[in-house]
């Protein structure tokens, strides 16, 4: 068993097997100085580092394992607008923050597309994301999404499919309808991570891999300490999400790790791939505990979901996920499964990001609750704003109150698991 904080290479995922440019940044050693030290080279940390470097800051980016090692390099690759908790924020702040929150909803999509183009990142970015109804009653949710776009005079392509159209486009009777937005999409997340890290490094960001941070020494210029060295900086940004154990006095029991699982088939024949996903869009159901899937660039079916909140891992990911895939596509029963992997999602009890400071100059951002690809990009920009002294968007998140469970972290996971049991039962109705 791998111990916590032990240096590790990437999980044996389809993404790791198809990386365009494997990273090999040096471990941190000795004394390093920078304007800002960012801890964690997933989407939040690397997006923050790149945004700061674009503004002229000197940045050190410290990663315990490899760039994109955690959820950022293992997820479903769905580029979806918004983030968990925006509805709560709209209720709290009302009209005073409506314009800012609307911008936040789509800003992550824009950042990803801008960076892919600007820095020439080869990450299989494609347009199109479909939310599907598993029951007739859920079609009303999709109709509401369509009406929202209509009222907003949305300028990008979107469509509402009835059951017949959905069957035609996905080659299955399993779904009762779909809402499709072509401003959203999907991507090879690990190649996006690594490409953005390369862009940041090209702008002068010092990147250190295989360098677990042991603790932070606070002060006017805090020190981020590893086993073999430290970074001394004016500001620190913590971006470890579900994997972080730093600053327990302030952050303990705010975010709980939950496992999500993905399998990848062998490449499908062109005709079959076309039959099951005619527009090559990412797909996710509208349950509270979701399943999601898409085709890879080489036409594998990547199917994931069945989020586990208890902390107890299944003996076999394949046996856990494969039956769920076959409910949708029984015709793939004899299709070979070539990859299986899991990753940790950072779950917050009220499903809203936890953002703030543990001191005057140590910032944190964590807890995407499974909606992090786009959200982490916009939060990277917001964290860079905060470091630079522009606090408007940061303060919106920092002003939210969060529940904190008593006792050890494992107990918090059981509380989350019990809470999600309600939603699992609700999904079955």
Characterization of this structure:
Helix content is 34%, strand content 24%. It is of the alpha/beta class and 429 residues long. It folds into two domains: 14-75 and 190-255 and 350-398, FAD/NAD(P)-binding domain; 126-186 and 258-347, D-Amino Acid Oxidase, subunit A, domain 2 (D-Amino Acid Oxidase, Chain A, domain 2, 2-Layer Sandwich). The chain starts with 13 loop residues before the first helix and ends with a helix.
Descriptors:
429 residues; alpha/beta; FAD/NAD(P)-binding domain; D-Amino Acid Oxidase, Chain A, domain 2; 2 domains; eight-stranded mixed beta sheet; 13 helices
What's the layout of helices and strands?
Layout: H1 14-17, E1 30-39, H2 43-54, E2 59-62, E3 78-79, H3 86-93, H4 98-119, E4 126-132, H5 139-151, E5 158-161, H6 163-170, E6 178-186, H7 189-202, E7 206-208, E8 213-217, E9 223-226, E10 229-238, H8 248-251, E11 256-265, H9 270-276, E12 282-285, E13 291-295, E14 301-308, H10 317-328, E15 337-347, E16 354-357, E17 362-366, H11 373-388, H12 392-398, H13 409-428
Parallel strand pairs: 1-2, 1-10, 2-7, 4-12, 10-17
Antiparallel strand pairs: 3-6, 4-6, 5-6, 8-9, 9-10, 11-14, 11-15, 12-13, 13-14, 16-17
């Amino acid at each position: 068993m791998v111990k916590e904080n032990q240096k590790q290479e990437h999980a044996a995922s389809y993404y790791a097997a198809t990386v365009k440019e494997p990273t090999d940044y040096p471990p941190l050693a000795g004394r390093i100085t920078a304007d800002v030290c960012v801890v964690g080279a997933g989407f939040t940390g690397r997006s923050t580092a790149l945004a700061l470097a674009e503004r002229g800051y000197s940045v050190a980016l410290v990663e315990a394992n490899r760039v994109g090692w955690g959820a950022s390099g293992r997820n479903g690759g769905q580029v979806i607008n918004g983030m968990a908790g925006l509805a709560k924020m709209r209720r709290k702040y009302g009209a005073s923050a409506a314009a800012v929150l609307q911008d936040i909803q789509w800003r992550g999509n824009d950042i990803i597309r801008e960076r892919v183009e600007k820095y020439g990142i080869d990450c299989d970015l494609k347009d199109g994301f479909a939310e599907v109804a598993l029951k007739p009653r859920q079609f009303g949710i999709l109709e509401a999404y369509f009406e929202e776009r209509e009222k907003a005079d949305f300028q990008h392509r979107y469509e509402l499919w009835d059951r017949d159209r959905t069957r035609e486009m996905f080659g299955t009777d399993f779904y009762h309808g779909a809402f499709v937005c072509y401003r959203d999409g999907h991507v090879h997340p690990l190649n996006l991570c690594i490409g953005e890290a390369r862009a940041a490094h090209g702008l002068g960001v010092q990147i250190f891999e295989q360098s677990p941070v042991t603790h932070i020494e606070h002060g006017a210029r805090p020190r981020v300490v590893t086993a073999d060295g430290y970074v001394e900086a004016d500001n620190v940004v913590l971006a470890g999400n579900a994997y972080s154990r730093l600053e327990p006095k302030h952050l303990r029991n705010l975010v709980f790790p939950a496992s999500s699982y993905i399998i990848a088939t062998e490449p499908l024949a062109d005709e079959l791939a076309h039959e099951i996903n005619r527009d090559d869009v990412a797909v996710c159901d509208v349950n509270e505990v979701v399943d999601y899937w898409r085709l890879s660039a080489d036409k594998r079916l990547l199917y994931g979901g069945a989020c586990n909140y208890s902390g107890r891992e299944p003996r076999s990911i394949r046996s856990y996920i494969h039956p769920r895939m076959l409910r949708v596509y029984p015709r793939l029963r004899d299709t070979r499964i070539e990859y299986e992997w899991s990753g940790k999602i950072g779950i917050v009890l009220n499903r809203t990001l936890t953002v703030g400071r543990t001191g005057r100059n140590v910032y944190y951002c964590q807890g995407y609750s499974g909606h992090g690809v786009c959200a982490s990009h916009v939060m990277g920009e917001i964290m860079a704003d905060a470091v630079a002294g522009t606090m408007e968007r940061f303060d919106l998140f920092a002003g939210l109150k969060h529940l904190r469970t008593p006792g050890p972290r494992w107990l918090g996971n059981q509380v989350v698991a019990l809470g999600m049991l309600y939603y699992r039962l609700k999904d079955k109705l």
